[in-house]
C-alpha cells in the first residue's frame, strides 16, 4: 500500500476533487484544501472516509501566506510528511484587458500565481531535507498560447510554467521533480459562464472531438506523482484532446 502523502489545493470540486479522489483510491494520504466551499469539502471527505481512505480537510485561502504556512504544518502533523504537492487552486475571470481593474488583476495573480509560490516554498521546508518530492502545478493551455479576454489568467498560468521550469533545475539535485499540467477545456464549474454554443465550437475544434473531464487531468497527475515519472522534471504535459499542439 502506498503510504505517501499528497496535499491538493482547491480540492473540494472540479479537477482538484478528481485528483484528491484518485490519489486516495491509490493509497495516498490526502489533505483536501478548500477555501469557501466548506460543504463540498465535507461531502468529499465523508465520501472518501466511508470508503476507508486516509483523508483530511483543511480550510485555507492559498493566496494568504500565513494560512498556507499553517496548512502545510497541519499536513505534516496529521500525516507526518508531504511527498506530493498539487497546486491546483485557481480562479478564472473574463474581461477585456482595458477593463481589468487593478483589484481584479491582483486577485487573479495572487490566487493563481502567488499561491503557488507560498505553498511550494513552505512544502520545500520538508521536501528538501527528505531529498524527495513531487510538485505538480496546474497551468492551462492559455498559459501556453494566450487567451483573449483573460490576459491576467493567461499571465498567471504562463508564469506558473516559467516558475516550474526554473524550480525544476534548482531542485533536481534534491531529487524533487517539478512539472506542469496544462489542461485544455475541461468540463467543470469553471466553465459555467461560457455559453453552450461556444463550448460546442470548442469541442468541434478538438481533434479528439470531446471536451476534457476532470478525470483526464487526475490520471495525468497520478502519473506525475508516481515513481513511473521519476526521470521527468521541468516539463509541461497538456491533456487537451489535440486542441493545442505545440
Ligand atoms: P473549479 O472552479 O471547479 O475549481 C477551482 C477550485 O479552486 C475550487 O475548489 C475553488 O474553491 C478553489 N479555490 C479558488 N480560490 C481559492 C483560494 N484562494 N484558496 C483555496 N482554494 C481556492 O475549476 P477547475 O476547472 O476544477 O480548476 C482547477 C484548476 O485547473 C485551476 O487552477 C484552473 O485554472 C485550472 N484549469 C482549468 C481548466 C478548465 O477548463 N476547467 C483548464 C485549464 C486549467
From TrEMBL:
UniProt keyword annotations, A-Z: Lipid metabolism, Steroid metabolism
Domain of life: Bacteria
Pfam families in the cross-refs: adh_short_C2
InterPro entries: NAD(P)-bd_dom_sf, Sc_DH/Rdtase_CS, SDR, SDR_fam
Family of the protein in this entry: Belongs to the short-chain dehydrogenases/reductases (SDR) family.
Protein name per the record: SDR family oxidoreductase
